[in-house]
Amino acid sequence: MAQPEETRSVQEHRTTTIEQGRFCLACCTCGWRGPARRARSLARTDAEGHLVNTPLA
Q1: Of 2, 37, 46, 53, whose CB is crowded by the most CB atoms within 10 A?
Q2: In the Cβ-directed half-sphere of 20, how many Cα atoms lie within 13 Å?
Q3: By three-state DSSP, how is residue 44 classified?
């Protein structure tokens, strides 16, 4: 007889960038925040790095 699969809650990480004055920073729905950057491209790179290096919990 087959056992039912164990289910667990998966938190999906969704990142965005926020501008604060002359700076831009990456934020995630999990509460993570990247450092303030002057270049939007660096904030986006921070966000991508967070997604790659953070396992789903």
Answers
A1: 46
A2: 11
A3: helix
